[in-house]
Design brief:
Blueprint: E1 3-5, E2 11-13, H1 15-21, E3 27-29, E4 32-36, E5 43-47, E6 52-55, E7 58-61, E8 66-69, E9 72-76, H2 77-84, E10 86-91, E11 96-101, H3 106-123, E12 131-133, E13 140-153, E14 160-171, E15 174-182, E16 193-200, E17 209-215, E18 228-234, E19 242-252, E20 258-263, E21 266-272, E22 278-286, E23 291-297, E24 303-311, E25 322-331, E26 338-349, E27 352-361, E28 369-380, E29 383-390, E30 394-402, E31 408-416, H4 421-424, E32 429-441, E33 444-456, E34 461-473, E35 476-487, E36 493-503, E37 508-517, E38 522-534, E39 537-546, E40 551-561, E41 565-574, E42 577-591, E43 595-600, E44 607-616, E45 637-638, E46 643-645, E47 652-658, E48 662-666, E49 677-679, E50 683-687, E51 693-702, E52 704-712, E53 715-716, E54 721-725, E55 731-736, E56 742-748, E57 751-757, H5 759-765, E58 767-770, E59 773-778, E60 786-787, E61 792-796
Parallel strand pairs: 12-50, 44-51, 52-60, 52-61
Antiparallel strand pairs: 1-2, 2-9, 3-4, 4-5, 5-6, 6-7, 8-9, 10-11, 13-14, 13-42, 14-15, 15-16, 16-17, 17-18, 18-25, 19-22, 20-21, 20-23, 23-24, 25-26, 26-27, 27-28, 28-29, 29-30, 30-31, 31-32, 32-33, 33-34, 34-35, 35-36, 36-37, 37-38, 38-39, 39-40, 40-41, 41-42, 42-43, 44-47, 45-48, 46-47, ...
């Protein structure tokens, strides 16, 4: 946008340039501008000959607010505000101007629509980028390795050592993981080797996921014991596409442990348990079959390999879409029972999904088939209803309601058919109510949860009431759990647990817990832990007292985190004597070309990574050729991950990424050391290969710079438009000369160009340029070609001689 500043610091604006910048409709004719503002019915006309602006029924005289400079008309900013509602606020100290509008500008609206479209794509699990790096499919490739060693020397017993090796590969175009446990004191058994194969292709129409190995077992056969080994297929994408609404998970683990929430193997959220181990997640409701996993990490570097797989209470399907799930396999019981399940989900509307199916178990002779039906309904975003009917067995209803943004209530009702109560449960009826909410009263803030359960059996009724209060007072964390249980006319049982945590100076943290039986007025247990971090070593000293058995346990633990592994040592003393335990674990990722590409202290199985190779693409073929060199970049942005840049080899490594998931990688030209370098592509959508580190080459091109002067007579002339055209005479870019006549442009790729002054501007000014054009060639150069001295001189055209 071109402006003039008068000696009285009045702002005069080139309206045509302003409107084109703001994407306001503007058509230029001789001494006239026409178009519309905000709405196609709100037409305007700027007539410089009559010195008047007409907009709708309003007409404004601008005769005292127009300046002209080398044929360009400028209007006073106050008149532009009066006519169009565009307010330009000038700051004379910084020589900057701020633009405000009383309506939504078209380019702002376009940006808003663009963000909305990008958000919708992200919600669908799609990633917005200008370059797509799809999956590479391999028949077989080694990839990742996890190793764990645990050893213990208990007092009075033989020492025990357990070794676990997990190998991650790509096999038959899918992910294949194998794990084995070995104990030197036991005979090796081939059954100790477990496997899992998974194939995912979200672009496939009929089968999007397939699994071999351990699969989800019976839901409606409580007598079934053991895992199911078999196969499963479905047509649901593994991407996490959220619908509106959520529900809450409130559970407990070890105090101060970090808990990660995964939906379909995608990390959604993480939190830290409080002093008593309480953690809370607000879980988004997503479309499709959903697997929820929870992973646990200790404050001293412990990683609990246990993963809790939770049954999501809701299965929503996109409108007018049919999703299926087929599972079959052998139950690992004494009868090798055959198991099968089919489930169908159909999205009637965006907020209503119906489902039906059946389970089969060969060992259930009386009723080998159990049909079921489900309905999930969301009348509005804060409320979700779910109903399930198991044929001749059970009816269940579940209500989840967000009372406020964070206050949540859940009501569950289950009714078992009397003559079949031994089928799924010996309960006749269950009513369960959960209420949870954060609170803030002045400086007192925290979280509270109230749980009520009433279970009716044939001979008695059991009632349970549980109240949890978690809060923080300055550096003191408090968790208080009180419960009340009673069975019919029996004496109630009342108990209380108190957990405290306090962070001291010098990286010290103190936690304690206390269990008290209110009914019997007895203190059951008391424990205290002192944690500290010394350099990279995590230390813990703990003491526990069992008041009933009058025993004490004292333990000292040290954990050390190396870049490639974690190691720990524990010494404890109890009534049984002195005990020692040691553990170590780590992971590696490797490939045939580069060997070990990463050694870490987190699990690498089922994950993948990216190796980014920025290079100077001199011949612009997009390939890293032998004569081209690598480039070190200063920063890379990737959603949900951290990039590690190596100065040694200029490779950017990204670790611990979820397989089969698209990640968006962004690089900026400002991250390059040379001003003449540009990334050929700035955003990448990269699909992660399972158990592999994908190599992605990022081409960088070297661009050229031109510069020169525009003279009017002997003086430099500003605000002259220069055009740069390619060999096909297409305008590549336009630029303006500065106030002293100097112009420059950096960003031309190698090739032939024509530089000229805008012919339309010359025509309107009745000038000609000498020379008329400059023909230039930008050469291939590592640091960018520079061409200067492209000067132009403007001269007034001689008036045409009248015809005789």
């Amino acid at each position: 946008m071109s402006v003039l500043i008068s000696p009285s610091q009045q702002i005069y604006i080139n309206v045509e340039n302003l409107f084109k910048t703001l994407q306001i409709k503007c058509l230029s004719e001789i001494n006239t501008l026409t178009g519309f503002i905000e709405d196609e019915k709100n037409l305007y006309t700027v007539n410089f000959e009559k010195k008047r602006i007409t907009i709708g029924s309003k007409s404004i005289d601008i005769s005292n607010g127009v300046l002209e400079d080398i044929g360009v008309q400028y209007i006073n900013a106050t008149l532009i505000f009066e006519a169009f509602g565009l307010n330009v606020i000038f700051n004379p100290r910084s020589l900057t101007a701020k633009l405000e509008a009383n309506f939504e500008l078209p380019f702002i609206k376009e940006l808003r629509y663009k963000r909305m479209r990008e958000n919708i794509l992200q919600i669908k699990g799609e990633t917005v980028a200008d370059t797509v790096i799809s999956r590479d499919y391999h028949l077989f490739r080694l990839g990742t390795l996890d190793w764990i060693i645990n050893s213990s020397q208990p007092a009075g017993n033989k020492s025990a050592t357990n070794i676990k090796i997990a190998l991650g590969t790509e096999l038959l175009f899918g992910e294949a993981n194998f794990n084995m446990q070995y104990n030197p004191n036991q005979k090796f058994d081939i059954k100790n080797i477990n496997y899992m194969w998974r194939w995912i292709n979200n672009d496939h129409k009929f089968i999007k996921q397939a699994n071999l190995g351990p699969v989800a077992g019976p839901t409606y056969f409580p007598e079934a014991r053991g895992a199911v080994i078999g196969a499963s297929i479905n047509n649901a994408s593994n991407t996490v596409r959220k619908t509106s609404g959520s529900y809450t998970i409130t559970e407990t683990t070890e105090p101060n442990w970090t808990v990660e929430l995964y939906i379909n193997d995608v990390l959604i959220d993480y939190t830290k348990a409080d002093a008593a181990g309480l953690y809370v997640f607000k879980v988004p409701i997503v479309y499709g079959y959903t697997i929820i996993k929870l992973k646990f990490y200790g404050p001293l570097g412990e990683e609990r390999t246990e993963e809790r797989i939770k049954n999501t209470p809701y299965t929503f399907t996109q409108e007018k879409k049919l999703k299926y799930l087929l599972t079959t396999g052998i139950l690992q019981d004494s009868l090798n029972s055959r198991f099968a399940k089919i489930g169908l989900n159909y999205g009637v509307t965006r907020n209503l999904t119906i489902a039906a199916g059946t389970e089969y178990l060969s060992s259930s002779i009386d009723k080998p088939f159990v049909p079921f039906a489900q309905v999930a309904y969301q009348p509005f975003s804060a409320m979700v209803l779910n109903f399930e009917y198991i044929y001749q067995n059970q009816l269940t209803g579940l209500l989840n309601l967000n009372l406020t943004k964070n206050a949540f209530i859940s009501v569950n009702f289950t009714k078992n058919i009397d003559e079949n109560i031994n089928r799924l449960s010996n309960q006749l009826e269950l009513i369960e109510v959960d209420f949870s909410t954060p609170f803030h009263i002045k400086s007192f803030a925290g979280f509270t949860k109230l749980n009520f359960r009433n279970i009716r059996y044939k001979s008695f009724t059991y009632t349970e009431l549980n109240w949890i209060l978690s809060t923080r007072i300055n550096k003191l964390k408090i968790n208080w759990n009180t419960f009340y249980n009673v069975a019919s006319k029996n004496e109630p049982e009342i108990g209380s647990n108190l957990g405290l945590g306090y962070r001291l100076k010098y990286n010290l943290a103190l936690t304690s817990n206390l269990n008290y039986n209110v009914s019997q007025n007895l203190l059951n247990t008391i424990g205290i832990n002192l944690d500290m971090k010394l350099f990279k070593i995590n230390l813990r000293a703990s003491y526990a007292r069992d008041m009933l058995n009058k025993t004490n346990t004292v333990a000292l633990t040290a954990n050390y985190n190396l870049p490639f592994a974690r190691a720990g040592v524990t010494t404890s003393y109890s009534a049984q004597g002195l005990n020692f335990a040691e553990n170590a674990y780590g992971s590696m990722a490797f490939n045939l070309k580069n060997g070990i590409v990463h050694a870490g202290n987190n699990s690498a199985i089922g994950k993948g990574g990216i190796l980014l190779h920025p290079f100077l693409d001199l011949n612009e073929n997009g390939k890293f050729d032998r004569e081209e060199k690598r480039i070190l970049i200063s920063s890379v942005k990737i959603e949900g991950a951290k990039a590690v840049i190596s100065k040694k080899d200029s490779i950017v490594r990204v670790f611990d990424l979820n397989a089969f998931v698209n990640y968006r990688v962004e690089v900026l030209d400002t991250n390059l050391d040379n001003i003449a370098w540009r990334f050929k592509h700035n955003t990448f959508k990269i699909n992660i290969d399972p158990n592999q580190y994908k190599q992605v080459f990022i081409p960088v091109v070297s661009v050229g710079e031109i510069s020169g002067m525009v003279y009017l007579g002997s003086k430099g002339q500003g605000r002259v438009t220069l055009q740069i055209l390619d060999e096909k005479e297409n305008i590549v870019v336009k630029t303006l000369s500065e106030f002293d006549g100097y112009y420059s442009y950096l960003g031309l790729k190698p090739g032939k160009y024509t530089v000229r002054i805008d012919p339309e501007q010359l025509k309107s000014l009745n000038y000609k340029a000498l020379p008329k054009v400059h023909q230039i060639t930008i050469k291939v150069s590592e640091y960018g070609d520079i061409i200067d001295g492209l000067d132009f001189t403007l001269r007034k055209k001689a008036p045409k001689k009248p015809k005789e």
